[in-house]
Write a structure and sequence with these properties.
With 182 residues, the protein is an alpha/beta fold. The protein has a single domain, classed as Glutaredoxin (3-Layer(aba) Sandwich). The chain is built from 6 helices and 8 strands. It has a 6-stranded mixed sheet. The chain has a two-stranded antiparallel sheet with strand order 2-3.
């Protein structure tokens, strides 16, 4: 059974991949170390995007995200972690303290991004794309809490999203990460 068939059979929000009105690869964001990341560099890669927080009940998912990254980083797979302080003020630190926390406590080596807003008036453009059907061409959704996960396929199409309770090592996410894309 292919990944899309498996994803369609599970209880989550999945959309049939379509060409987006706004090209995912036209987006960009700052990395946690202050470098501009042009998403055109992600062409041909499957991307898991997750909003993170250092003082959340789901914070131990950093360990699972790191495990997923270590096991799939050579398979055209990327994880982008976006720290956010919009849920329970659970990410109050600055980018440097967040980076230090992630490295010291979880050995994070996947790409962490600068802290952003994932909802509201100052929502980062990446999250506008992820949560708006008029941007992504697939489905509107909401980020409900820290560690909400989004999947973007290797063609830059919004594929689905998973709530905070879904482990990064869930079979749907590991299947997505390990798929060779061909």
């Amino acid at each position: 059974m292919g990944l899309f068939s498996m994803l369609m059979s599970c209880n989550t929000t999945i959309a049939q991949p379509v060409q987006s009105p706004v090209d995912f690869y036209s987006l960009s964001a700052m990395t946690i170390d202050g470098q501009l990341m042009d998403f055109s560099s992600l062409k041909g890669k499957r991307v898991l995007i997750v909003n993170t927080a250092s003082k959340c009940g789901f914070t131990p998912q950093y360990r699972e995200l790191q495990t997923l990254w270590e096991n799939a980083k050579d398979k055209n797979f990327v994880i982008l972690g976006f720290p956010c302080n919009q849920f329970g003020n659970q990410e109050a630190g600055d980018d440097q303290s967040i980076a230090d926390f992630c490295e010291k406590n979880y050995g994070v080596t996947f790409q962490m991004m600068a802290k952003v807003k994932v909802k509201g008036d100052k929502q980062h453009p990446v999250y506008t794309w992820l949560t708006s059907k008029s941007e992504n061409g697939a489905k509107s959704s909401q980020v409900l809490w820290n560690f909400h996960k989004f999947l973007v396929d290797d063609q830059g199409r919004w594929l689905g999203n998973y709530g905070s309770k879904t482990s990064p090592l869930d079979v749907d996410l590991t299947s997505f990460a390990y798929e060779d894309g061909h």
